[in-house]
Design a protein that fits this description.
Two copies of one chain form a homodimer.
Chain A lengths: L8 H20 L1 H14 L6 H10 L6 H12 L6 H21 L13 H5 L1 H21 L3 H23 L8 H26 L4 H26 L14 H5 L4 H9 L2 H12 L7 H11 L2 H19 L7 H15 L3
Helix pairs in contact in A: 1-16, 2-5, 3-7, 4-5, 4-9, 4-16, 5-7, 5-9, 8-9, 9-10, 10-15, 12-15, 15-16
Chain lengths: ~350, ~350
């Protein structure tokens, strides 16, 4: 289950298609993304050398910069001609990076899991502080947009993200978590930043009005939900190795994600005991991950999680219907497919 | 050295004097502080119960709310008649509380020290996230002030604070730290928030102009430096027990503060070896704290630290010279003395 060296023709086709969608988007915003990258480097700098060193560890780790890309693409969609999107895209990436750094901070009991997050190299304290530094720099960049509406959106986003993360912590290892609560968590911790990344482009492109802002917000939100659903499915997907990532991280942490929520609800008493032991009590043995994968497959919950993602993806696409056709719109529609099809 | 049950007449007099200055200030801003307290409770609330629970642990722990008090008193000094100072005072307190929560996050090696900070009750992760939540709420409150200048000041303040905290981490246990670097650390981590707390009152009280803003900023900054110097002196002060606090925390952590910086520079080779063992290598034995106190006393470095504080206190007072006499000005001058005289 965990390794599969046979690559079928279909896999190749899908791989090509997904690469095309993200590459198309990357090429659409290439010039502006260069300015964003310059701004990132400039604004994460500090005479205190540890700050750019630690921040750079994550920022230069080769992420796709999906969130700032959404701000840039949304600005293109509205044919915005100013320069404010550069600083805002940088702010969005900083908020995201700060969140990741703070996610890395762990408790004593969880310190060893074979990964090398920032906190294992520089310690919890430095990791928290550099996250705070990036948060503060994000706010400075937002202030430079000279738009109180942008500041309202992004400061509220930031509060909702942390609320979502605390909620996630509260329901950690709790198998009675409902799909509704799960949706609330992923909306708050992931989708609202996607939504804000798009919406702020509407705000700075003033002449398009509230309808455009709301459409972009909805697009970002549904895309973000789809993105996180697929992310949670991928953690139980054997082909994840092709993305250079391990599978089963969520299982080992006892994280409550939709594949498990559905399997627990659909399972027999015996199966529920298995989930209680492994996810709730975190008493895991060799072979447990494999058994979990069998149960998820048997109840079809990985596929159903991707089906749910497809539903939100369709809503994201429909939200863009009010905009006339353009290269930017094409790219934004393509990114929805990309986010879902990376599951295969 | 550590306990002194004999209370002299002079102690009584000083105690009365300090109580008077802070009480005078408290009574000056009592009505508005009630509104700030209401706003704190309202804005730290969340449907995610862990958030108000954890935030309340610190916020309700009986601090003097010195920073928001400065915002309120500065507004009174300028005879400001609006309501914006309430939200800003709350934002300042939230930034301070978030900083304290993030300071509580420690690394594995430092987890046990007999204290009960938030992270020992709720864990590092929750503590970091609730700190982030308060930061975000602070920014929301700032945005409501409708003043981009206020946002500039406070977002920059927030970046400088974290820069100062990282710098402090970088020089931790490093006895070659100069007094200049130490001043840089305490200015950034403590004084800029005092400065911003006062300065924003000048910004919202628009008609007073830049001169008033700069005077308030200078007052806050010098007061903050004096406050932190005294705080660092108090950690080696036997009478600290009267404030309900332990002494020697900084020593046990190997924190580099002015009393130690000066004693190391003034000490003999043998004394320097003692400091290297205890502060740099953190190899501490019974009796080391007592010996450290002897060395600090012998070289007069606790008193000299308080003398330095007195110098900055004088500068803080002079910064207020441009304002005409008033009850608010009296209180703000009195608070400088309070911050310094709590050392005795």
């Amino acid at each position: 289950m965990a390794s599969n060296n046979v690559v079928s023709l279909e896999d190749h086709q899908n791989a090509d298609k997904t690469i095309t969608a993200i590459e198309k988007m990357q090429s659409l915003v290439a010039d502006q993304m260069q300015l964003v990258n310059d701004t990132i480097l400039k604004r994460m700098d500090s005479p205190v050398a540890l700050i750019p060193e630690l921040a750079g560890h994550l920022i230069n780790s080769g992420g796709k910069r999906l969130r700032p890309m959404l701000t840039l693409a949304s600005s293109k969609l509205l044919a915005y001609e100013g320069k404010k999107q550069i600083g805002l895209a940088t702010a969005v990436e900083f908020i995201h990076t700060a969140t990741l750094l703070h996610d890395d901070v762990v408790d004593e009991s969880k310190l060893r899991r074979g990964k090398k997050p920032a906190n294992l190299i520089w310690g919890n304290q430095a990791t928290v502080l550099v996250g705070d530094f990036l948060f503060s720099r994000a706010f400075e960049l937002m202030v430079e947009s000279d738009s109180l509406r942008v500041l309202q959106i992004l400061s509220n986003t930031s509060a909702v993200i942390t609320e979502g993360e605390v909620l996630q912590l509260t329901v950690a290892n709790d198998l009675s978590t409902t799909e509704e609560t799960y949706l609330q968590v992923i909306t708050a911790k992931t989708a609202v930043l996607f939504a804000a990344a798009c919406e702020v482009a509407g705000v700075i492109s003033e002449e398009h009005g509230e309808e455009a802002e709301k459409a972009l917000e909805a697009y970002g939100k549904y895309l973000g939900i789809a993105f996180q659903l697929v992310d949670d499915a991928l953690d139980y997907n054997a082909k994840r190795a092709t993305l250079g990532k391990e599978i089963g991280d969520d299982f080992r942490e006892g994280k409550i994600t939709l594949p498990v929520i559905l399997a627990y609800r659909r399972g027999s008493d015996e199966e529920r005991e298995f989930w209680k032991r492994t996810i709730q009590k975190l008493k895991q043995e060799d072979g447990d991950l494999e058994h979990a994968l069998e149960l998820l497959t048997q109840h079809g919950t990985i596929n159903d999680t991707i089906e749910r993602a497809r539903h939100y993806g369709a809503m994201a696409k429909d939200a863009l219907a009010i905009f006339k056709d353009s290269e930017a719109k094409d790219c934004m529609l393509g990114i929805v497919d990309f986010c879902i099809e990376r599951a295969y």
